[in-house]
Amino acid sequence: MLSRERIDAVPRLAPGWQLSRLWGPSPLCGANGMRFGPDGRLHVAQAYGGQVSTLDLETGAAEVVASVGEEIRSPDDLAFDSSGTMYITEPFVGRVSVRFPDGRVGVFAGDVPSANGIAVYQDRLFVDECRPGGRLLELFRDGRAPRVVAENLQLPNAFMAGPDEKLYFPQVAIGEIWRCDLAGGAPERFLDGLARPTAVKFDSKGRLVTTQADSGEVTRVDVQTGARETLARVRPGIDNLVFDADERLFLSNFVDGGVSEISGEGGERKILGPGLLGPFGISAGGGRVLVADGFSLASLSPDGGIDYNLHFAKPGYPGFLRGIAAVSPARAYVTISGGNVVSCDLESGETAVVAEGLEEPNGVAVGPDGRPLVAEGGTGRLLRIGQGGDVSTIATGLGHPAGVAAVVDGSCFVSDRDGGRVLHVGGGTSTVLDGLESPQGLAVHDDDLFVVDALRKELIVVSLSTRRRSIVARELPFGFPAGTGERSLPGIPEVMPGRLTTFTGLAVARDSAILVAGDAEGSVLRLARAA
Known about the structure:
The protein is mainly beta. It is built from one helix and 49 strands. A five-stranded antiparallel beta sheet has the order 1-46-45-44-43, with no helix packed on it. Strands 2-49-48-47 form a four-stranded antiparallel beta sheet, with no helix packed on it. Strand 47 and strand 48 form a beta hairpin. The mean pLDDT is about 95.
């Protein structure tokens, strides 16, 4: 979706402006399944990023595998057969794709809803569906219909054949690992009491190793006795694990895109540190910089640190985050791809739905009365959420509204993403700015209105008194590679509903600097007027 490939342009600033990065960039757009390829390099799939990258295990430098992002949209896990052909699951589009050693790519099997875990055993290909009632399937190269090995599973994920020639797979939703014969038959429970197990692999001695996303634990299990031991405890959000030929253990993190090596003593070496998936919405209210980052809500500190206040590995996470607006130092409103507006307690991590059933809620702002204002992209409306969750319509006919910025006089500005314009709403609707390609994030500071044009990769400022416009910066790391247009992914109904669209957010910091989501490179940019 948001590929880190071809982000090499250098931002060009208007005279009198300076640019720095409050956070990032990151070479990966999330980190999901991992495998060592025939070339010995570690391959990392990025489901939201739409790419597979090879990672230098010493420096953390990443290189995008050619041709994957051209037709393969959401690679989550991958496996190689003996010929070096790579098979890739794509959960957001429900299929299994293939990349041949000569670089050709194509669809290997369609109609595999939430295709996720994948394993090759003696050149036989097995795939599971990470959804309630999911299946474990064997796929065939001759075009035969898939064979159902097991069904009615609860979010099965990354799996592997054990030394006993049984398939061992986690059922994430119930915290258990099950196994079944390769030939099929009734599966049996092998291990329970786990904190959202996401992956199962075997080491060279035939011992099962599993990751627990909620607790951050890596656990090794003796298949014969069931005896468990903890190999490491790291931050929550582990997605997958892999061993290299020397039995070195590596972990990926789907929340922050990190990749680590675990030593024999349980220590963690961060090959690629925590980063951002997007980011998308940004808020600088309430005394901290908050980022809505799809799978997490993160706080950025002035000293360069990051804290993941809420994330997908925590039970009760509300869904894919897009817009954010701080209400106070301890609370913020966020918009969710599935159609909800949620209030988040930044200290406890507790959330509460304040409005639901909206059609593509995007940007959110807090009005002078403390109530959230929401741009509803799917209906072209600007909404106000009142106490008790009542939703009132402030304006209609706004095209495809994306960003919203509140003004102290009670009016607000809204960006129309598809119509290429910015509107003022207050006692009527009028056009403030037009002729744009994809206006998204908005922010007001004194007499200035700042606008992100994600397709043109520009930050624009407009004087509200004179309507004079100028470009603050060009060639900024927004959106998709030049010439590819904007794209989105369908959500997964049972796991992450709603269409997953990007949103390039914008905010004004306390020191009057402009903060922008550099979603194309995983950064938060800071633009400030020179002293």
